[in-house]
Amino acid sequence: MLSAIITSDYLVAQSVQRGLDNSNLKCLIYKTDFSVTDHYDFIYHDGFLVLLKNPKEQHVNFCSHLQNLSPGKKLFILIEDCEIEVLNMMKEAVNAPLFFAPFSYHQIASFLQRDVLCGTDEPMIANIDDLSLKLDPRKRTLHINDEITIQLINKEFYILQFLINNRGRVVSKTDMFEFIWGKNLLGSMSTIDVHMSRLRRKIKKHVESPVIKTIPCAGYIIE
Fold first, then answer.
1. How wide is the angle at C-alpha 171 spanned by C-alphas 178 and 25, nearest 5°?
2. CATH 3.40.50.2300 segments of the chain
């Protein structure tokens, strides 16, 4: 997954890029004057992060144009400072999440990864030792070696989707909770244990070796 940071301030964008990179979200920086007539080199990326220092009407028009140009792509707007009039204009014209400085890079990365992954119909495939796993987002099913099909409920599916997307990296409960439950952070972390236990039982009926490993005091991993 590779997203684009779109900005007129390259130095600030580099700081944002480092913060997102530390949160496991890879981005490239594209400097622009926010013209709606430009040819956009970043249009084929998975998601767009428009970084604005002090938005004006021009920036509102740009974000609206970008969203209309790529209706299937996720757009996030990162704002350092903003006048209330322009902010209200942005909210009315653009249907996109707004983030304000100081930015929570971990939160931004989690939300963007969740929205991009949940919006795709392409199956995810992972080969683990002698197992071939295929996760089908359309049917919410897990296929093992093209022989076994396991039906998943939504939260089980998202847990497995997140782990496969971050294969080889330990993800914490906080990472998982923000990805799956998004802004609804009022729930208990123990809900992850419940869904994880149910998911593991479903897989264990067909596979002896553990697919999802627990790293004590750290989180979970699919290697």
1. 70
2. 2-118
Question: What's the CATH code, domain 2-118?
Answer: 3.40.50.2300
> What whole-number distance in Å separates Cα of residue 19 and Cα of residue 91?
25
Look up residue 87 and give its two tokens: 């902010």
Provide the 10 A C-beta neighbour count for residue 6.
27
Q: How far apart are CA 161 and CA 164, in angstroms?
A: 5
What does pTM read for this prediction?
A: 0.59
The rounded distance, in Å, linking the Cα atoms of 167 and 221 is: 7
Q: Nearest 5 degrees, angle CA 202-CA 180-CA 197?
A: 25
Domain with CATH 1.10.10.10 in the chain: 124-221
CB atoms within 10 A of CB 13: 21
Residue 70 CA to residue 50 CA, distance in Å, equals 14
83, 119, 127, 174 from 196: Cα distances, Å? 44, 23, 20, 14
Strands (E) located in the chain: 2-7, 26-31, 47-52, 74-79, 98-100, 124-128, 131-136, 141-144, 148-151, 213-215, 219-221
> In CATH, what number does 124-221 get?
1.10.10.10
Radius of gyration of the chain (CA): 19
The whole-number mean pLDDT for each consecutive block of 10 residues of the chain, a chain of 223 residues, reads 88 93 87 82 84 93 89 88 90 90 87 68 78 86 90 88 84 79 60 90 88 90 88
